[in-house]
Amino acid sequence: MEKKLIYLDNAATTRTAPEVVEEMLPYFTERFGNPSSIYGFAAANKEEITKRREIIAGVLGAKTDEIYFTAGGSESDNWALKATAEAYGKNGGHIITSKIEHHAILHTCEYLEKVRGYEVTYLDVDENGNVSPEDVEAAIRPDTVLISIMFANNEIGTIQPIKEIGAIAKKHNILFHTDAVQAFGQVPINVDEMGIDMLSASGHKLNGPKGIGFLYIRKGVKIRSFVHGGAQERKRRAGTENVPGIIGLGKAAELAAASMEDRMKRESELRDYMIQRISAEIPYCRLNGDPVKRLPNNVNFSFQFVEGESLLIMLDMKGICASSGSACTSGSLDPSHVLLAIGLPHEIAHGSLRMTLGADTTKEDVDYVVDCLKDIVQNLRNMSPLYEDFVKKQAKEK
Ligand SMILES: *Cc1c(COP(=O)(O)O)cnc(C)c1O
């Protein structure tokens, strides 16, 4: 019998939807042609790609030729930052971002600082992970070339005031990029209404395939080619197109847009139910991220007196897949930069757990997970000398 598996790590990656796989399959087999070839059999793929570009542009309120396919979110983020920095600030310049961005943004900024002579302002966030539009405006300098603020955070789920930041960028005539990898297909986005000039997204975060994503680039934005070579993607990103990937991403975007309203409602209800049960039934915990301005599928808690890794291992034994912002999972000694940026002390950050719901998560799953979690947290605390001291101290005070 197959072991029960409850997958609550949809911010890390998602299951490719069966409809997506089905639509991709012919492009590996009978429709394998190179879209740049002249003969009809292959050239037909070019039209198929255009159709998928149209679908994605439609979801964002963008124009078809403003969508550039890439190999995923990290590439889109790299491209947006490096190529704008080059085009708009040849002799260096200033970039504004936040302390809670994905590493694809933060490490690219570090590179631009160290190698290209850029200066970067990393804005603080409040205790719920909100970037303040006033802080963005106050950080603007005469040489600021780019503002890059993520749409929604991948760890704590906080959704940023993108429209307000977009308006500020526009007022000061500065380019505005947003890493929307966690938001695209999950919440409504309109690039015109929100004043977005560039936007990154990735297929595998919205039930599409891995290794495909796109960068939206508003018409008129001067941005250099990221990959030099052939004429693909209007010469801005060369290389034979990942045709099956593009087909899959198009289908995933179409499905996500069609089901967005229902899914947001269903997932946010489940999310709030889970948050409410954990808050009520497990003592000494803290919800991380904004309680309201939050991705519909994100639940992130810190539990005092436990280690995130231990939680993950014990949950795994119950067939539950989740994630932690503690040290080992990130491969470094420090806990997640996001949890530190919202002001958590190291020991609290180490006891954090992220559970991200998906389209197939049920209330029964949530109940099972919370029941397991209650036992696991209690068992781990019973083994913790810190917890023992804490309990003794409390008894004395009473
Ligand atoms: C996953 C993720 C990325 C990276 O996307 P890939 O397609 O895996 O390269 C970038 N930013 C955010 C916010 C993410 O969640």
UniProtKB/TrEMBL annotation:
Record's subcellular location: Cytoplasm
Major localisation: cytoplasm
Pathway per the UniProt entry: Cofactor biosynthesis; iron-sulfur cluster biosynthesis
Cofactor dependency: pyridoxal 5'-phosphate
Reaction equation(s) it catalyzes: (sulfur carrier)-H + L-cysteine = (sulfur carrier)-SH + L-alanine
EC number of the protein: 2.8.1.7
Matching InterPro entries: Aminotrans_V_dom, Aminotrans_V_PyrdxlP_BS, Cys_deSase_IscS, Cys_deSase_NifS_bac/arc, Cysteine_dSase, EF_Hand_1_Ca_BS, PyrdxlP-dep_Trfase, PyrdxlP-dep_Trfase_major
Record keywords: 2Fe-2S, Cytoplasm, Iron, Iron-sulfur, Metal-binding, Pyridoxal phosphate, Transferase
Protein name: Cysteine desulfurase IscS
Modification N6-(pyridoxal phosphate)lysine, positions: K205
Record keyword Transferase present: yes
GO cellular component: L-cysteine desulfurase complex
Superkingdom assignment: Bacteria
Organism of provenance: Mediterraneibacter butyricigenes
Aminotransferase class V domain mapped to chain residues: 6-369
Assembly notes: Homodimer. Forms a heterotetramer with IscU, interacts with other sulfur acceptors.
Family: Belongs to the class-V pyridoxal-phosphate-dependent aminotransferase family. NifS/IscS subfamily.
The keyword Transferase is assigned to this record: yes
NCBIfam families, alphabetized: FeS_nifS (TIGR03402), PRK02948.1 (NF002806)
A GO BP annotation: amino acid metabolic process
Record-listed [2Fe-2S] cluster binding positions: C328
Top-level enzyme category: transferase
Function comment: Master enzyme that delivers sulfur to a number of partners involved in Fe-S cluster assembly, tRNA modification or cofactor biosynthesis. Catalyzes the removal of elemental sulfur atoms from cysteine to produce alanine. Functions as a sulfur delivery protein for Fe-S cluster synthesis onto IscU, an Fe-S scaffold assembly protein, as well as other S acceptor proteins.
Molecular function (Gene Ontology), one example: pyridoxal phosphate binding
Enzyme active site: C328
Residues binding pyridoxal 5'-phosphate: G73, S74, N154, Q182, S202, G203, H204, T240
